[in-house]
Design goal:
Pfam family, one: Glyco_hydro_19
GO biological process, one term: chitin catabolic process
Order of helices and strands: HHHHHHHHH
Protein name: Glycoside hydrolase family 19 protein
Structural class: mainly alpha
GO molecular function: chitinase activity
Strand content: under 5%
Helix content: 40-55%
Organism: Flavisolibacter ginsenosidimutans
Number of helices: 9
């Protein structure tokens, strides 16, 4: 993908898009995000989740995740330690372990490798893992299959396109939080694909 496609679809500032461009392209190659519909959906959703490729760590403290056994947070401090990180917020000890096993990286003892407070504070490794973790999440939820059902020549906010986009959003967010913004980013990006 080009810098313009990444910048416009994610609604990112040029410096953030430029920092993430090689890592996003590597992520898309690795996880088969390789058609215009897949790339457009991925960028629009990631753009919303990261506020334009800026935040790579959840703004909240993580206290809400303390003692959440469904996330594997069984040790004191796990909520803060394993709060959401990456371009799609990977959350919880279990997910950090699973993604670490997949990448061959110890995210349990090095959770901040998935992202710093924001892109301006990220090392190259943090930028890489923030992007790659989003691809891992995308792949684990089979979101390419949903993106393949979206016709980018038709409006995203109508009919089957909207139905599929809502389904995708629910798999990422658990609900439809930020749907209007996600749709808007898709519409902006569609001009560049």
């Amino acid at each position: 993908m080009t810098l313009g496609q990444v910048k416009e679809t994610t609604c990112a500032a040029t410096p953030c898009a430029d920092k993430f461009l090689p890592y996003i392209n590597d992520t898309c190659d690795k996880y088969g995000i390789n058609t215009p519909a897949r790339q457009l959906c991925f960028l629009a959703q990631v753009g919303h989740e990261s506020a334009g490729l800026f935040y790579t760590e959840e703004l909240a403290s993580g206290d809400a995740y303390e003692n959440r056994k469904d996330l594997g947070n069984t040790q004191p401090g796990d909520g803060r330690k394993y709060k959401g990180r990456g371009l799609i917020q990977i959350t919880g000890r279990n997910n950090y372990k699973t993604i670490g096993d997949s990448f061959g990286v110890d995210f349990i003892n090095n959770p901040t490798l998935l992202g710093a407070k924001n892109a301006n504070l990220c090392s190259p490794d943090q930028l890489k893992y923030a992007a790659m973790s989003a691809g891992w999440f995308w792949n684990s939820r089979k979101l390419n299959d949903i993106a393949d059902k979206i016709d980018i020549k038709k409006p995203i906010d109508q009919g089957d396109n909207l139905t599929h986009y809502i389904e995708m959003t629910k798999k990422i967010n658990g609900g439809t939080n930020g749907l209007a913004d996600r749709v808007n980013r898709f519409k902006i990006g569609a001009k560049f694909f």
